[in-house]
C-alpha cells in the first residue's frame, strides 16, 4: 500500500468487542468488530501493521484474578495507548472483524482481560508498514518466537486467502510448551505430521514447533530448527523468503542466518511506543545507511515495524 493511501485511511475508530477468551495461562484472544469508516479503514489493515488501543477506561479485574507477579504493577494508570498487531482480519460486507492475541504482562493487558462482548474500545490505525512479499517467491518461512506470532498468523491467513500459491511453513518457538501462545493441541501425531498448530493448519500452513526445554516439538531454539530445515532444503536462496517476529535475540539470529545464505528477510521489530505516529521519537531502531558505514535511527512506528533484515543493526 502506498504511503499516501496509508495516511488517508488511518484514523481513530470505535471497535466493539465480540469475544475475549483465555487460550493459555498468560494469553488471551480478543475479537473486535469495526463498522462504518472503521470497517473501511481496517479492511486495508496489512499483516505486520499495528493499531494503538486505548485501555485507560477499562476496569481492573478483581484482586484475586490479577497474577501474583503483576500485583504491584497492575494498579498503575494506563495513560498511553498500547500497540498491538492483529492475528487475523476479515472484511465482509459492511463489517470488518479482527482478532488480536495478547500476553498478560502489565497494567494495560491485565485490564484487557476484563473486556467482554459488547464493550467498546477506541483504536487508532492502521499504523506503520507491514510485510511485503515480492513476486516470484516459491516458499515463505515464518519464524515466530513467543508472543511474536500474531502478525505471522495474519500474513499466513492473508496470503492463503488471496490464493497467492506460495508455500508457507511456520516455525514457532518458545521457552516451554506453556509459553506457546496457541490454541491447538500439541499431540505427538499432529506434531509429526507438521500441522500441530490449529491457527496455521486452518489455512493449510505446516507448522514446526520448538521449545527450549523440549516439552513440545523440537528441543532447542526455533532458529536451530530453521537451520536444520534450511540445510535439507533444495530451494535456491532467491526462491525463498523469511519473515520473523519475536524477541530481539531471535530476530538477530534470523537476520544472521538470512545474511549468510543470501535469503530475503523481513523482521517485525518491537519497541515501546508512546505516540505511534512518528512524533515522540521513543521507538528508534538503529539502521544501516546503504553504501556507507554510517547508521541512522528510524522510527519503528513510522518506518516499521517491519524492516528489511539487512537494514537493522543488532
Ligand atoms: C508494533 C507492536 C505490535 C505488538 N503486538 C503485540 C501483540 O500482537 N500481542 C501482544 O501481546 N503484544 C504486542 N505488542 C506488545 C504490547 O504493546 C505490550 O505487551 C503492551 O503494550 C504491554 O502493556 P502493559 O501495560 O500490559 O505492560 P507494560 O507495563 O507496558 O509492559 C510490561 C513489560 O513488557 C515490556 N514491553 C512492553 N511493551 C514492549 C515492547 N513494545 N517491546 C519490548 N518490550 C515491551 C516492558 O518493558 C515491561 O517489562 C506489540 C508491540 C508493538 C510495538
Ligand atoms: S512511538 Fe512516537 S515516534 Fe514512534
Q: What features would you describe in this structure?
A:
The chain is α/β, with parallel strands linked by helices and 314 residues long. It has 3 domains: 3-127, Translation factors (Elongation Factor Tu (Ef-tu), domain 3), CATH 2.40.30.10; 139-267, Rossmann fold (3-Layer(aba) Sandwich), CATH 3.40.50.80; 269-314, Dihydroorotate dehydrogenase B (pyrk subunit), domain 3 (Ribbon). It contains 9 helices and 16 strands. The radius of gyration is 19 Å and the shape is globular. The two termini are 28 Å apart. Residues 1-7 have low confidence and may be disordered. Bound molecules: flavin-adenine dinucleotide and FE2/S2 (inorganic) cluster. Flavin-adenine dinucleotide (FAD) binds next to strand 4, strand 6 and helix 4.
Question: What's the CATH topology name of the largest domain?
Answer: Rossmann fold
Q: Based on CA inertia axes, which overall geometry fits?
A: globular
Per DSSP E runs of 2 or more residues, the count of β-strands stands at 16
Q: Radius of gyration in whole Å, from Cα? A: 19 Å
The termini sit apart by 28 Å
Helix content: 10-25%
The CATH class label of the largest domain is: Alpha Beta
Task: Summarize model confidence as the mean pLDDT.
Answer: 92
Structural category is alpha/beta
Name the ligand types.
Answer: flavin-adenine dinucleotide, FE2/S2 (inorganic) cluster
Q: What is the strand arrangement across the widest sheet?
A: 4-3-7-1-2-6-5
**What would you give as the CATH superfamily of the largest domain?**
Nucleotide-binding domain of ferredoxin-NADP reductase (FNR) module
- How would a textbook summarize the main sheet? 7 strands, antiparallel
Outline the low-pLDDT stretches.
1-7
CATH architecture descriptor text of the largest domain: 3-Layer(aba) Sandwich
Q: How many individual helices?
A: 9
Quaternary assembly: single chain
What is the percentage of strand-forming residues? 25-35%
How many domains is the backbone divided into? Answer: 3
Helix-strand pattern: HEEHEHEEEHEEHEHHEEHEHEEEE
